[in-house]
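for the writeup, i need someone to sanity check this before i put it in the appendix. the sequnce is what the collaborator sent (i think, or maybe the updated version? ugh). structure was predicted straight from it, no edits. if anything looks off just tell me and ill rerun, i have time this weekend
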Amino acid sequence: MKTFKGRVVVPGTCTAEALVSHGGFNTLASFQHSLMFNDKEAKCGDQNNKDIYNKPMAGKALCLPQTIGSTTGGMVLYCANAMGRSPACLLFAHPIDSLAAAGAILSDVWTDTPMPTVDSLGEEFLAAVSTGDKIRVEEDGVVTIL
């Protein structure tokens, strides 16, 4: 087991399977197909993200360095959450950007589906975690690779 401590953006606890992206995460490109065409698994539609392209994101511990791309990113995260297609949690190696933070916080306030969000976990976190690993997130921002 490896443990990391990050900054809590949206508090909560969960245990989920990791889905790891080592490149920037384009929220709109990743979720657009799922939201438009009723893909309940929310398979990643961003062809430029070779780590997670075409892999289901719904219910996963989404581990990434940061988000990139569209200014709609926050609303895309909120819509994915409201439609039951969001990751179980968002885990950022770097500080979260304002758009992704807005989407995570709006999801927390406006839906009944928790999506714990922790940032500033460090590059060591992304180096240690692999897709398929079990991840546990605690209220205080402690993230454990089980």
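The chain has a mean pLDDT of 96. The CA atoms of residues 85 and 98 lie 21 Å apart.
thx in advance!!
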